[in-house]
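name: query_chain
kind: protein
chains: 1
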Amino acid sequence: MTTTTKSSGGSGGNSTEATTIAPEERANLLNRMIVRPEIGALLGALVVFLFFSIITDKFLSPLGVSTWLDDASTLGITAVAVAMLMIGGEFDLSAGVMTASTALITGLLAVHAGWNIWLALVVSLAFALAVGALNGWLVMRTGLPSFIVTLGTFLALQGVNLGVTRWVTGTVQVSGIRGAGGYQSAGWVFASTTNIGGARLQASVVWFIVVTAIAALVLVRTRFGNWVFAVGGSLPSARAVGVPAVRTKIILFMTTAFAAWIVGACNLMRFASVQANQGVGLEFQYIIAAVVGGCLLTGGFGSVVGAAIGALIFGMARQGIVFARWDSDWFMLFLGVLLLAAVLVNNAFKKRAERVRR
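structure:
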């Protein structure tokens, strides 16, 4: 209900109109906001942004903005895919090391086998998709938790990365990619920079925006997106209504592998080298970004836009701490507090959303 009050003056014809929103309408507006899983991450991002904007001038400088956007982008590309997988009820602990595996394959084929970079990129992409499909198939075929299956994949890939790289190069890194055929065009796609308002934005930022937009569209506007929520909410119920659960989960695992391939390509083309142990530990940051963005560890609830915002919080906090000249060890405290707060907030939001939908 809306109440409107009008009053008019004398010859001047002045009038005032006051509109107040009834408590029921305010409650409905609040409920519509609460059911959005990314609302908590958005508020958190606003707080972090305002905090570092106030305490350090460098944060909002062109260099500062480009730095924390760059930091957030490489994390966010894979975090968005991991968020979709978590909404589908699964985890992928091999996503971090996969960024190194794909980059190593590309580098070894291009530098040591003399292949064109684009052909090497295709082979590394095929490898990533195959591993992702294998992870999904094993999870669905064996019924084992995805945590265990992908932990095994993580360890296997880490061993292969170190062993093969040392066997071929004699070291634990691959370098010299700039001299390979096709580098100029591949470098433009994965490692070019764009000047906007004095800020030099990396190609990874563009990839981050594109991946987030596509994932959000797929998740909320397509039948496949409905399948993702269904298999994450209740796998038996999803199967009962005809959802192709095995296919859906395999595609989700392949999506995380594809995102890791993009990050690996961006890092390789930009830095022209890759370490065999690169990416180890990032898998937990992907999960934390997704949880901060509204994803539940139990599946069936979450947002890829929220995961992107979660990655943005990471970038702003990590670089904000540097700009403020604080000890970088404080970032780990920030992560721990942020994760616990996000889990509590997400559970509260889900319960409120379930009450609203009844």
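note: The CA atoms of residues 191 and 203 lie 5 Å apart.
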